[in-house]
Amino acid sequence: SQQGEEDPQALSIQEGENATMNCSYKTSINNLQWYRQNSGRGLVHLILIRSNEREKHSGRLRVTLDTSKKSSSLLITASRAADTASYFCATDTGNQFYFGTGTSLTVIP
Amino acid sequence: DTGVSQNPRHKITKRGQNVTFRCDPISEHNRLYWYRQTLGQGPEFLTYFQNEAQLEKSRLLSDRFSAERPKGSFSTLEIQRTEQGDSAMYLCASSLRSGTGGNEQFFGPGTRLTVL
After folding, report:
1. What letter does residue B73 receive in the DSSP assignment?
2. Which residues of chain A does B107 touch, with a Cβ-Cβ cutoff of 8 Å?
3. In a mutagenesis test of the A interface, which of B58, B59, B100, B107 is the best target, namely the one with the most A β-carbons within 10 Å?
4. What DSSP state is assigned to residue A82?
5. In the sheet that B75-79 helps form, which strands lie side by side, from edge to edge?
6. End-to-end CA distance of chain A, in Å?
7. Other C-beta atoms within 10 Å of B97: how many?
8. Distance of alpha carbon A78 from its chain centroid, rounded?
9. If 0-12 CB within 10 Å is exposed, 13-18 middle and 19+ buried, where does residue B41 land?
10. Residues B24, B5: contact at Cβ < 8 Å?
């Protein structure tokens, strides 16, 4: 029943490299959000992009949104070991909130 | 008030028993959400409230599940006649919905339910 799917499912990179993960979804949205979840811990909101926006930046994070393709990407630049976590996209349709299946990111020191 | 809190953090119960979880949102937040998360999956939306009104329920929410937010503050999620398939982490989140707000959600630590 999940609307979003992240790609890749798992990603392993060296510290300092950039990490890119993608999200595809199925229906029209009001906005799309990215969250991080560390192993065994709660979800933390990272960034929100509205349906009329195409790109947004926050620190080392860059998010793009292509509503015609129903897809979004999250870029983490200059990765750190502390970025190791699962990353989820979440779509807000106005009435419901759908999380994707997640990308597990491992940053090797 | 430093965030969303949930109680209990862990609950072990026998199949067929009823369980109730509580969520205390961030005090000024008018929206409250319940999700269920199983290992290796993203959270699945169950229901949400705006103030005390329950505005949406997922088809995942069977008749055995009921949620309330009687005074528009804390919320409870009850599962009746629990089944082993109900074993999961139950997450609560809250947000402040404004006219142009983006609905950023703040999550609690979750209640882990194990049904034996």
Report:
1. S
2. 35, 42-44
3. B107
4. G
5. B5-7, B19-24, B75-79, B65-68
6. 36
7. 15
8. 16
9. middle
10. yes
Banded model confidence at residue B2, pLDDT cuts 50, 70, 90? confident
Distances (CA, A) of B50 to A74, B29, B54, B96, B115: 30, 9, 7, 9, 30
pLDDT tens sequence across A22-52: 999 998 999 999 999 997 778 999 999 999 9
Task: Using alpha carbons, list the distances in angstroms from residue B7 to B17, B76, B92, B113.
Answer: 18, 10, 10, 11
Summarize pLDDT for A74-92 with one digit per residue, the tens.
Answer: 999 999 999 999 999 999 8
Task: Indicate yes or no: CB of B45 within 8 angstroms of CB of A97.
Answer: yes
Number of residues assigned to chain B: 116
Is pLDDT at B98 greater than 60 in this prediction?
A: yes
Write out the two tokens for A105.
């990111």
Distance from C-alpha of B92 to C-alpha of B82, rounded to nearest angstrom: 19
B34 touches chain A (CB under 8 A): no
User: Are A96 and B45 within 8 A, CB to CB?
Assistant: yes
Q: Which of A2, A35, A95 sits opposite B44 (nearest CB)?
A: A2
Q: Which residues of B touch A45 (CB under 8 A)?
A: 104-106
Which of B44, B93, B110 has its CB closest to that of A1?
Answer: B44
User: What's the full length of chain A, in residues?
Assistant: 109
